[in-house]
Amino acid sequence: MAFLLRAARWGLCPWRGYCSRVTKGALSEDFVAALKAVVGAPHISTTAAVREQHGRDESMYSCQPPDVVVWPQNVGQVGQLVALCYRQGVPILPFGTGTGLEGGVCAVQGGVCINLTHMDRIVKVNTEDFSVVVEPGVTHRALNTYLRDSGLWFPVDPGADASLCGMAATGASGTNAVRYGTMRDNVLNLDVVLPSGELLHTAGPGRHFRKSAAGYNLTGLFVGSEGTLGLITAATLRLHPVPEATVAATCAFPSVQAAVDSTVHILQAAVPVARIEFLDDVMMDACNRYSKLDYVVAPTLFLEFHGSEQTLEEQLQRAEEITKHNGASHFSWAKEAEQRSRLWAARHNAWYAAMALRPGCKGYSTDVCVPISRLPEIVVQTKEDLKASGLTGTIVGHVGDGNFHCILLVDPKDPEELHRVKAFAQQLGRHALALHGTCTGEHGIGLGKRQLLQEEVGAVGVEVMRRLKATLDPRGLMNPGKVL
Questions:
Q1: What is the CATH number of domain 122-241?
Q2: Which phi and psi angles does 81 have, rounded to 5°?
Q3: Which residue pairs, CB below 8 angstroms and at least 24 apart, start in 312-317?
Q4: Where is the FAD-binding PCMH-type domain (predicted)?
Q5: Is the predicted pLDDT of residue 22 greater than 70, yes or no?
Q6: Residue 160's pLDDT is what?
Q7: Residue 299 — left, alpha, or beta (φ > 0 → left; ψ -120 to 50 → alpha)?
Q8: Residue 11: which pLDDT band, with cuts at 50, 70 and 90?
């Protein structure tokens, strides 16, 4: 297994925008026929266009595509496919919506891509227990549409309409995390097909309790594992009551320091904000152009509050006092759903607005997260470093939980620019680590952050992860080249 893992590492060159193939070539006709026998001929493809589509996500990485793509229709077929691939020594790559940002779907060793989007049932909603069971093809927007009349919702929102099981696999987060937590806080149980083809229920079949002290936390092990330990075929998720009332707001600031200081002060004052997002002046200008808005081009906070009408009034008053003390201006409040949607349009379209700054380029998003007390220091320094780098980029982030992103625009055909992006991202990651933070708050390790992972958790931590990987995936075939 150690050899396989080393080969996967040596076969990667993500910052050059491609990955080398380290397997022996295309799959045999007999093997492809065996795959067809499991899923049926209409649910398998070896065409170049389909394979290329499944060999990339929203990241800057461009890798070799898988050898074949299959669409299982149920968990039984997933188990058969995985067991068949494992017996033949063929790499296995899970695929959801392809909205990841760390190259997690890249087929660095070829193999079989298992597209799970045809398994898209909302299996069961337990309204009295505030939980739901979903298959891997269900996205978070589809789930909330389904729940619209139930009085419940699922608040983890990464921006893109990602699949919920994919979000569990990457440990995703989003704009509501400051109040409702990340996927790690909202996954109660997982169904996982192991490399052997066996089906594991991480908390026991059908169980959806809120807490347990029963043995090792297997659910937590697979949340954030990025398909390297098994394929998630169902997730039991925690639901939350829809708030009685919601109010959103934006306010502009004279400086990055003033905006981020306001974030820290609001949290220290225990104002129960549901969302608090930061966009720098470059990002606001890009959003104005892309979404045809007219916000002030200045460092800006987007805030949202959930609760009763009475409590919201108090929260808004306190937040406004704090932000004005830090020099905020151009307040814009919105209570009606349509008004809130327009107000939040800039934040939701931030990635695509940034991409529009340099058409034809790829985007790379950094993903550091630090303790909230260190947030002003690192954001201000990052803004200065970004200006000095000569790179085109913006700053945007879920600053309520210390997480922010630099969205960098890069020409993948320009080696010098790629090198500068790599250097900037590594410098920022190490700055976050020096402040006792993490190199990834929500995107995962994927292809590009494996060295930073080692620096973050240390040699002993990485070795424990390798042992876990070796126990569950001794042949190193589950999404090879990622995380470790």
A1: 3.30.465.10
A2: -65, -45
A3: 312/245, 312/247, 315/271, 315/272, 315/273, 316/247, 316/249
A4: 61-242
A5: no
A6: 85
A7: beta
A8: very low
| 423: nearest Cα among 386, 473, 453 | 386
Question: What pLDDT shows up at residue 64?
Answer: 84
**Tokens 């398998």 map to which residue?**
44
Lowest model confidence (mean pLDDT) among 151-155, 342-346, 391-395: 342-346
Residues 161-218: pLDDT tens digits? 999 999 999 999 989 999 999 999 999 999 999 999 999 999 999 999 999 999 999 9
Six-digit token string for 375: 């947030």
The answer to whether residue 317 scores a pLDDT higher than 60 is yes
Alpha-carbon distance of 21 to 23, in angstroms, equals: 6
Mean pLDDT for all residues in the chain: 92
Does the domain at residues 245-352 carry the CATH identifier 3.30.70.2190? yes
Separation of alpha carbons 136 and 10, rounded Å: 31
Domain coordinates of the chain in residue numbers? 19-117, 122-241, 245-352
* CATH number, domain 19-117: 3.30.43.10
Same topology, domains 122-241 and 245-352? Answer is no
Is pLDDT larger for residue 42 or for residue 19?
42
- pLDDT of 25: 54
Q: Residue 247, exposed/middle/buried by CB under 10 A (0-12, 13-18, 19+)?
A: buried
Cβ proximity of 158 and 141 under 8 Å? no
